[in-house]
DNA sequence: CTAACTGTACTAATACTCGCAGTACAGTTG
DNA sequence: CAACTGTACTGCGAGTATTAGTACAGTTAG
């Protein structure tokens, strides 16, 4: 399913969170789609189920998935707009990073390009409220 | 000079790096201005000089300041445009964060606002190459 | 040169994180 | 009940992070 870098300084569970997040955001994993069970994925990746569970728990905390005891873990379809707290903190980070990037010489025009780039790759199959 | 949260999970030296970075980016600290010595600042904040030094070293590595043995640490005036490597990594982070923010419901229009906001607060006293 | 300042290097203790392992419990489904 | 699912808890071992303490090195003023 993915590749992990065991030698990386970035923890395994964190790599998992990142990759799964990407898959969810890009809608490779569809809403309500079931994720592999902690034991299955652990077997495939030959790592400890506990590590998977840690990643799943993190994703659930962040609102990307939901887990049901006895059934499995699934991609969260509602999510998102509800977690305005999260949006706020993400925007805070964003502002910090943006000011840094612009300080380093990123031109507004280049930034706009970046945004359009993302718009097309994400908004491609989304709802327009 | 600043306030530190000793109870935070974020290391002290990292808090220092963040705050100093902000001061430099916003030009509260002017180019070539001398920073407080590691011992002075450590005394003021009642923390270990080594912690300050670690923050300063990090800032130097990232190109925000330069230090001269026996003289002191100073805000780096050239900096920036030279570190294109850094710009690249910042942009990478930026893309990740942007896609997350947009997934969470951030509208492009709101993003543009953010940018204009930063433009005026940063570009206010800068060179237009 | 000396004294008092500056940054820097090294070591050490402590605390935390990460990943693994094992065990046990709880809900679902057939 | 059996076999699957997620979840909780303990402990262990290795590594890393954080801070502190101490000592060294360059600069400057007298």
Automatic annotation (TrEMBL), chains A, B:
* This protein's UniProt keywords: DNA-binding, Transcription, Transcription regulation
Residue ranges that the Swiss-Prot or TrEMBL entry lists as coiled coil: none
> Does the record bear Kinase in its keywords?
no
Which is a Pfam family this sequence falls into? GntR
Q: Which SUPFAM superfamilies does the UniProt record give?
A: Winged helix' DNA-binding domain
Every copy of the HTH gntR-type domain together lies at 10-78
CDD domains associated with the record: WHTH_GntR (cd07377)
An example of a GO molecular function for this protein is: DNA binding
InterPro entries membership: Tscrpt_reg_HTH_GntR (IPR000524), WH-like_DNA-bd_sf (IPR036388), WH_DNA-bd_sf (IPR036390)
PANTHER family in the record, alphabetically? HTH-TYPE TRANSCRIPTIONAL REPRESSOR YTRA
Write down what this protein is called.
Answer: GntR family transcriptional regulator
């Amino acid at each position: 399913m993915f590749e992990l870098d065991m030698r990386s300084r970035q923890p395994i569970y964190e790599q998992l969170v990142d990759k799964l997040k990407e898959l969810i955001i890009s809608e490779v994993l569809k809403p309500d789609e079931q994720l592999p069970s902690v034991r299955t994925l652990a077997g495939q990746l030959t790592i400890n189920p506990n590590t998977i569970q840690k990643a799943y728990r993190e994703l659930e905390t962040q609102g990307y998935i939901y887990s049901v005891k006895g059934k499995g873990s699934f991609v969260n379809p509602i999510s998102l707009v509800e977690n305005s707290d999260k949006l706020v903190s993400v925007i805070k980070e964003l502002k910090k990073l943006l000011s840094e990037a612009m300080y380093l010489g990123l031109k507004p025009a280049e930034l706009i390009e970046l945004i359009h780039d993302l718009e097309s790759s994400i908004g491609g199959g989304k709802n327009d409220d």
